[in-house]
Structure formats: C-alpha cells, structure tokens
Amino acid sequence: MQLKIYKDYHSLSEAAATEIIELVKNKPDAVLCLASGDTPRLTCKLFAEKAIKEKIDLSNVTFIGLDEWVGIPPENEGSCHYFFQHEVLTPLHFSADQVHLFDAISENQEEECRKMDNIIFEKGGIDLMIVGIGMNGHIGFNEPGVSFDKHSHVIDLDDTTLSVGQKYFKTAVSLLKGITLGLHHLRESKKVLLLANGAKKAGVIQKTVEGEITLSFPASIMQKHSNGFVMIDEEAAGLIEK
Ligand code: F6R
What we know:
Elements: E1 2-6, H1 9-26, E2 31-34, H2 41-53, E3 62-65, E4 67-69, H3 80-89, E5 99-100, H4 109-122, E6 128-131, E7 153-156, H5 159-165, E8 177-180, H6 183-188, E9 192-196, H7 202-210, E10 228-233
Parallel strand pairs: 1-10, 2-3, 2-6, 3-5, 6-9, 9-10
Antiparallel strand pairs: 4-8, 7-8
Helix pairs in contact: 1-2
Bound molecules: fructose -6-phosphate (F6R).
C-alpha cells in the first residue's frame, strides 16, 4: 500500500479521476468499480468531464457498483444506484448491459450476490476499485468484524453506518441491511484507491495506515494490498505520525 497526500479535496479528486481516465484509455474493456457517497462525488464529476472533453470511447467498459442499501429503491435520491446513475452512468451514456448494480429491492438478495460474483469472475476481475471509508472503518458495507475473505454478501449494518447513512436521504428512512462486494473482491482487484478528505476522516485514516491489521477495522486490509493507494487530502492526513 502507498499513501498519497494531496493539498485539498479538488487535487485529490483530480488525481483519482485521472487514474480512471488513464485506465480506460489503456484498457478500453476495463472493469471499473466505484463507491458512491460524498467522497467520490467530485472524482466522478471530473471523470465524466474529462471523458467527454477527450471523447473517450467507454462503450466497452464494465461498471460495477460497490454496494447498496437493502430495500431502498433506485429512484430514491439517497440510494447508491441514484448516485451512480446521476454522477456517472447517464452523463457518460453507459448502456444497461455495461452496468452491474445490486438490485436492493429484489426478493432474492443471495441471488443478487451470486450474480455479481459471477459477473466479476467472467469479466476477469476488477481492474480499478475506488472506495471511500466510513467513520467505523468500513469499506463498501464491509462492517467491523467481517471476514477479509468474503465475496458479495448481505450484512446487518453497524450502528455508525445506520446513523451516518441518514445524511444521504432527504427524509428519514429505515436502514437495516446492506448488500456489498466483499473484501475478497478488494484484495483481488488489480488496483485499489481508497479516498478520504476532511479532518473528520483523520482518525480513521490514521488507523487505516498505521493501525493494526484487524477484522475490527476493515480498511486496515489496505495495508496488505500490493497495488493499493490511500489517497487523502492534508486535512485527512492530520493525525498520521510517520
Ligand atoms: C458507499 C460506500 C461507503 C462510503 C463510506 C464513506 O457506496 O461504499 O462505504 O464510501 O461510508 O462515505 P462518504 O464518502 O459519504 O463519507
């Protein structure tokens, strides 16, 4: 794992967006997996702007959505689905067959997981995964305590995720479970960028890069990734000692 510190959120997002652009230029049939949420929002916007400006052909790219709130329909503005659609997929005219998002309102969530695992396997694995980090150290919805070996799975959300998660929704929703790619997928991804910005992420970033590698802090798995990059702004780097 490597640590990269940027001056601010904008330069961090520029760097992450450039990583996506370089990938799709070099590998037009790349498999790209993104998280939703506040952190990657500007990365997505800049990626979309650059791809349009440079007229990059994305028609062979496969897009994988990292996770979703179980029971929340795609038209809800707080869903991950809504985020992906509005920030990336619609602006860049991705066609439905290029896009694989968990259907969080399917009655068979286990089947959703197996479908996602099969797609990733059939496509030859994920080339680039871009994730955020939760205030409890989660990645996707890999909550504290989850095995590092999990494939896609449904999980009871941690109390921190349940309370922080309300920020995405205009009106209060009942959140209980998440459906997510597992940390096996992260470990197997050819490249992983974990992004974080702002002073409120300084504590979890310090644990991610300097703490013990432990199931109780899922993001600590980044330390083991040989092509993993923790990309943060100066505020999120505030508590790092080394
Ligand atoms: C969302 C996701 C989550 C977020 C994390 C940080 O798809 O996978 O793990 O990345 O909760 O969220 P923000 O970026 O809103 O601080």
